[in-house]
Amino acid sequence: MKLFFLLPRVPYPTEKGDKLRAFNQLKQLSQKHEVILCALNDSVLHEDAEKVLSTYAKHVYIIDISRVSIYLHLVKTLFSDKPLQVGYFYNKRINGIIRSLIDKHKPDHIFCQLIRVAEYVKGIPIPKTLDYQDVFSKNVERRLATAPFYMKPFLRMEYRRLLRYEHDVFGMFDNKVIISIPDRDLIPHPDREKIVVARNGVDTTFFMPMNREKQYDLVFTGNMGYPPNINAAEFLAHKILPLILSRKPGIRILIAGASPNLRVSVLKSENIEVSGWVPDMRECYAMAKIFIAPMQIGTGLQNKLLEAMAMQIPCITSPLANQALQAKENEEILIADTAEAYAHHIIFLLDNPEKATQIGCAGYNYIISNFSWETETDKIEKLLNTK
């Protein structure tokens, strides 16, 4: 089958969750299909991106979006009924390019990642699949509680528009995919149960237990320009850490990940290191005794948890993050819903290394048994063959 793979971002390097998911879906689907990859690009392109992606796609098209174009279309979108998420990535010039590529290659199926690119294939009479990935409307709604006052009107507007768009886009596609059952159940459409749940996997030949000296007590990783990660890092530094210092004054915390926002960078202290981008995230996991993901907002499945658990690092996270993960509380993972509960779990694991090892091993076994890119992408493969 000839598959047109349309993405809002270039899926290399894989420092963001949507890029990681797209890269691995591309890798798996290319084994059985001829893939035409078309990706929008709003940043500096990695020098190896086209070379790496050409390993899996027969044709690679990267379409740049200029900052001027983005700002102009965001302003235009303010006076329309479309979400800003869609307006950011859409313009007529790119629409013409994408339509011409589809006419040129005449694909049998179009696969779109995220609602951000749905407008580009609207009305095209070719079978189409949309990967919602997660629920943007719910993500924006959760951000409202902690957003500065001047952002709240825009977020409320975006929330209402996303609700409507996530409903309307449902009918534009023959098949729909999403990352978890909790996310599927939040899609604002009466036929949401028809959406196929295809979770993320983890490369357990890459993320695997490593023997390293433990330089940190805690590690938190992710793209540190992403609002839910910024919020979680501040919660860790301002709410959790002060509760631990009386018992563990020398505690060492590593916050690692690309593009740290200023709000994350200023958290650096004698107890907290903010690394920024690292060449190999496995080293960050392996050098820590505990992985913590105190997610207060956001949606979807946290890849950081899959990776840490695959490396046998005991993990502590929120009920929100575990909704998609579905690991067994107090057996495969520890769950906390308050700063006090996080502090209790952290101190307990640091004081009881045997229990920490036990949870790390149970979490590892859970990931090995349940999160495979091959198995999850096979669900998409079956959908492609039904239309």
Can you tell me about this structure?
- There is one protein chain.
- This protein is α/β, with parallel strands linked by helices.
- It folds into 2 domains: 212 residues, Rossmann fold, CATH 3.40.50.2000; 155 residues, Glycogen Phosphorylase B (Rossmann fold).
- It contains 16 helices and 13 strands.
- The strands form 2 sheets. Strands 3-2-1-4-5-6-7 form a 7-stranded parallel sheet, with helices on both faces.
- Helix 1 links the parallel strand 1 and strand 2.
- The longest helix is centred in the middle third of the chain and has 18 residues.
- It is globular and about 65 Å long.
- The termini are close together.
- The model has no long low-confidence stretch (mean pLDDT 96).
Name some characteristics of this structure:
single chain; 387 residues; alpha/beta; Rossmann fold; 2 domains; six-stranded parallel beta sheet; 16 helices; 43% helix
Task: State the helical fraction.
Answer: 40-55%
Structural class: alpha/beta
Overall pLDDT score = 96
The Rg value, from CA coordinates, equals 21 Å
Low-confidence stretches: none
Tell how many strands the DSSP assignment holds. Answer: 13
Alpha carbon gap, first and last residue: 11 Å
Order of strands, main sheet, comes to: 3-2-1-4-5-6-7
The best one-word shape is globular
The CATH homologous superfamily of the largest domain: Glycogen Phosphorylase B
The total number of structural domains is: 2
Percentage beta strand: 15-25%
Assign the CATH architecture of the largest domain.
3-Layer(aba) Sandwich
